């Protein structure tokens, strides 16, 4: 008999790594990246043993290469670029999965439940948006294997375009196997997501440059290679399309460094924020922040201020920081940035009139200016605190994507930034109540009611911050998959 196999340290490692023509428009140049952009680096060549023909498919099993006529047709759909990943969730039912004992030869299986779910941040954001009646265009990659067929068939069922999804027999689709405990917490994981970096190349993305150019917004997730991130952001910069960066994990969040000058929106946990700031600064200047429950939320904000300011100083216009049960910090250099709307370019966009009217009714512009519960103003930038909605959380999977998906859908519907983040925060609440990453459907009325509740409780005040602290002790690693976005027990 060998010794006990303790997965606790392995779990901590993987937890860190994988986790409007119809409406009033206010086009905003200030939401576009303001700094000069470098030239696009040359696209890498494909490995000779596993070449994927992007322009001219070599066999019948390669599909979805865009036609020239498609490229000539500009659209106003939001564009999302990133991963489609099969989530394999394993939950043992007879033991603590943190400590697995060696088994006898006659007892080589463990009873439990195994489920499959569609994953990948870009895919989940697009799925969420579609259920809020937006029509996003997804650029991604999957193979013709079991995982790829599962992901692609599910995507086809949404009714959204699959023209941006590269498929080839040489591609092994991305997948993650998660081992969960009885409470849905991640204890260990094994990930194979390299195909996204390898095959979602600048060459494939270049085929959809016209869509990026005419899009009201581009979202990229950090599963992309640095070269693909740079190429995507450069295409967006050339047409003043604002970019939303999703960091995916603490480790991958560092990929923002070479593209930060072309990023307008960032959503991140506090740990991802610190990692991005350190990557941009080229050192370990910014210390992890520890939330002290006995102190006001303003003191935690003070700890994060240096990292927030660095990203804003590098050209990011809006930062959404998720702080667990305390909700969200929404930051920008000026309040006017938070009151802006996307510049809808080209033809009539495919946004939702119903979403716009529902949220605008519960979140009338200007209401926030009178709130003074929190003092989060600094001389350097403007911030708003959005509390979390109470929810009995079933699973944290997909909460980050639903917050971003709800926010982008609202932005594309013609709502301003503060209204949209309120809508996104309300959308994320419904993800926490279910096992899957994205709910089967959303009630626009319920999203609007939740957004209105949060919008009326946004806390802003211009003045000196009291109860400041210099406590920069390391924050313990959160035992939450996807770096928990909104989580609050039902009280």
TrEMBL record:
<dbReference type="GO" id="GO:0016798">
    <property type="term" value="F:hydrolase activity, acting on glycosyl bonds"/>
</dbReference>
<dbReference type="GO" id="GO:0046872">
    <property type="term" value="F:metal ion binding"/>
</dbReference>
<dbReference type="InterPro" id="IPR011611">
    <property type="entry name" value="PfkB_dom"/>
</dbReference>
<feature type="compositionally biased region" description="Basic residues">
    <location>
        <begin position="1"/>
        <end position="12"/>
    </location>
</feature>
<feature type="region of interest" description="Disordered">
    <location>
        <begin position="1"/>
        <end position="74"/>
    </location>
</feature>
<dbReference type="GO" id="GO:0005737">
    <property type="term" value="C:cytoplasm"/>
</dbReference>
<dbReference type="InterPro" id="IPR029056">
    <property type="entry name" value="Ribokinase-like"/>
</dbReference>
<feature type="compositionally biased region" description="Low complexity">
    <location>
        <begin position="57"/>
        <end position="69"/>
    </location>
</feature>
<keyword id="KW-0479">Metal-binding</keyword>
<dbReference type="GO" id="GO:0004730">
    <property type="term" value="F:pseudouridylate synthase activity"/>
</dbReference>
<feature type="domain" description="Carbohydrate kinase PfkB">
    <location>
        <begin position="104"/>
        <end position="335"/>
    </location>
</feature>
<protein>
    <recommendedName>
        <fullName>Carbohydrate kinase PfkB domain-containing protein</fullName>
    </recommendedName>
</protein>
<dbReference type="Pfam" id="PF00294">
    <property type="entry name" value="PfkB"/>
</dbReference>
<feature type="compositionally biased region" description="Polar residues">
    <location>
        <begin position="17"/>
        <end position="32"/>
    </location>
</feature>
<feature type="compositionally biased region" description="Pro residues">
    <location>
        <begin position="35"/>
        <end position="47"/>
    </location>
</feature>
